[in-house]
Amino acid sequence: MDKLNIAADPIDLHFPQEETSSRNDYNSRLTKAIMHYLLNEAQVPEFQRLYELRKKGWGVPAGDKFFAKQRRTSDKAHAKTAAHFYKMMQDIATDMNRLTGIFDIKPSASDIGSRPALLDLCMAPGGFLATALKINPTAQALTFTLPKSEGGYEVARELRKHPNVTANFLDITMLATDMRTPAAEFPPSHPDFAKFLPAHFNEKQRFDLALCDGQVLRTQARAAYREKREATRLTLTQLILSLEHLRPGGTMIVLLHKIEAPNAVQLLYEFEKFSTVRVYKHAHYHAKRSSFYMLASDVKKDRKEAREVLERWKRVWRAATLDVDGDDEMFRQVLEEGAPRVEDILERFGERLVNLGRGLWEIQASALENAPFMKKSSRREDQRP
Q: What sequence ranges are listed for the domain Ribosomal RNA methyltransferase FtsJ (predicted)?
């Protein structure tokens, strides 16, 4: 559940579409509406170009090999590879800050003189955190990361010894008490009953900047029931703990995939109600992939909209964790309860989505167009009789 796995297969985080069996569910309807809007109504040229390139590259053997190699590299990261990823994530964070200033913590008038507080929920190897500490040298950081013994990655040496970093090596999706679902609410027959953890957060603990860019690791051994909804559980854990403990006016950096995916659109739409939302994608690193970062600043966590979405996330996390039988219909109902109407999202957010997405689609389309495996595919097409 750490950052190296950004090189793995893109996972549609938050509320993955494949998690319910019905093709008429909320996510399916939202997907169809978004695609129709971008391709037919708004006719966004950047997205149309990317859409055609994706169709062209689907199933190209050379492309499959390229991404399979990236997955193997991610899964078997040794010291040299980990050092490369650590440096890469620092480069990404530095570029992100150069363009947006997102890592610059500016205390409010009431906090003048206090030390900035950082929260990193999936730290390893720690490139983002290292950059945040470099920009804010007096900051104190509370961090979490999956232990190496459970499939996690090595934390950079300089962070392991950093006096301003308090590290917790654990699986954050087991923080049931901090998620407001104490272990006592789980039946003793639950496969993870003995693994749920007591509180690791102080009730009044608040952070200026929260980093939410962890992903599910294929190298982690998990109970079978978790496989189906682990991406949802991990993403919601990060969102809930961050928003719950964010200082009013604080900042969240969240890793997502496919800005046009229903889960990403819904998340951006919700955050726009109580924060200033920007997006970022590096022009070189992972350019061929759909990954991008949502940058939410001046988060007004006390607004009614923020409180409502936080409670809805908690209900979904609880359902995904308690449901060990994979009850798709029950989970679909929980997902849709309180969710915004599909029509409202596009009517109120469609134009904003286009403006946010143009740069991301352009970067990915250009990278795919120039990828060696796509050029090989084009040559084969040209040689056909």
A: 118-296
DSSP helix/strand/coil, 298: strand
Contacts 24+ apart (CB under 8 A), 327-330: 328/19, 328/20, 328/21, 328/22, 329/20, 329/21, 329/22
**CB–CB of 331/136 below 8 Å?**
no
Q: How many CA atoms lie within 13 A of 75 on its CB side?
A: 12
* 328-365 per-position pLDDT tens digit: 899 999 999 999 999 999 999 999 999 999 999 999 99
| Burial class of 200 by CB neighbour count within 10 A (0 to 12, 13 to 18, 19+) | middle
* C-alpha distances out from residue 242 to 33, 99, 213, 310, Å: 30, 23, 12, 10
- φ and ψ at residue 124, rounded to 5 degrees: -55, 140
d(CA 99, CA 93): 10
Query: What's the whole-number mean pLDDT along residues 150-154?
Result: 85
Element (H, E) at 35: helix 26-36
Distance between CA atoms of residues 107 and 102, nearest Å: 13
**Could you tell me if residue 126 is left (phi over 0), alpha (psi between -120 and 50 degrees) or otherwise beta?**
left
pTM above 0.85, yes or no: yes
Query: Which range has the worst mean pLDDT, 113-127, 145-159, 210-224, 264-278?
Result: 210-224
Type and span of the H or E element at 254: strand 246-257
Residue range 26-107+116-371, CATH number: 3.40.50.150
Going by C-beta distance under 8 Å and a sequence separation of 6 or more, which residues neighbour residue 340? Answer: 266, 269, 270
pLDDT (mean) for 66-73: 57
